[in-house]
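#structure-requests
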Amino acid sequence: MQPTTSKVKWGIISTAKIGVEKVIPAMQQGTDSEVVAIASRDGDRAQEAAAQLGIPKSYGSYEELLADPEIEAIYNPLPNHLHVPWSVKAAEAGKHVLCEKPIALTAAEAQTLVDARDRTGKLITEAFMVRSHPQWLRVRELVREGRIGDLRAVQGAFSYMNRDPENIRNMADIGGGGVYDIGCYPTVIARYLFEAEPKRVAAIVERDPEMKTDRLTSALLDFDRGQASWLCSTQLVPYQRMQIFGTAGRIEVEIPFNAPPDAPTRIFIDDGSALGGANAVTEEFPVTDQYTVQGDLFSRAVRGGEPVEFPLENAVTNMRILEALLRAGDEKRWVEL
């Protein structure tokens, strides 16, 4: 990937942990992205983050950052319920927007971003960094080539333990819960590999009796070519894995979502000839920070290079599926899409 002629100048809305600890340091390593400002509703906190990360400018309000004419693109890692309003404001201020997932609280809300994009002409994209990682590009390539025969099933698990009622992931009224936070990943990966949309979905959803968030969900997505199933939980042992099954083979992705930025990743390709995958072939991928790649791909699209592979409409569809899964669980029935 050749760098653009000039780096896109980025502003970061909020000092959210994911931005400060993961995304910003990764973007600063990019060939096409330059982080020039960060904002918080607490000016001291913004100044502290800017000093820590070597960012030239800090602002004590999001509005000040959006008014900065130097900034071309915004990264929005705000709590879920603030994704849409501030992404719309950013686009209306003339900035391109990379917004954390889930991009909205409902599909209808996500559609307002499509309207904002069309109205302003600014690029708005959901930040699913996993689709940028070489391991997933390779898995999709193997599936397309028929290495595992016909793709028939995608299965996964993603879990962590967090019972802190003060954590935004445990606040139901602002978009907390497991399906939106982590169930979105196996959902988007199933769509990525089947290269299609499910016809209907079903789910079993267990909610925390006090926080009311979905804390354990088992989901089933029915595609024309096969099925996807996954579980996610905010109150289980930390774990993540994905399995892709075909008529002639299987692919296992060892660290599918939080791929480390400082260590190689591996996938295992198994033809089923020995129990336990004893004859599986291992493919290793060199150290890659998927946030760096994600930022540079977005910057290149801003500069008129290759367009983003997954437009905003893809994010609207993902929200529609996540909504349907929660409804299916609450109503204990299949939900048609």
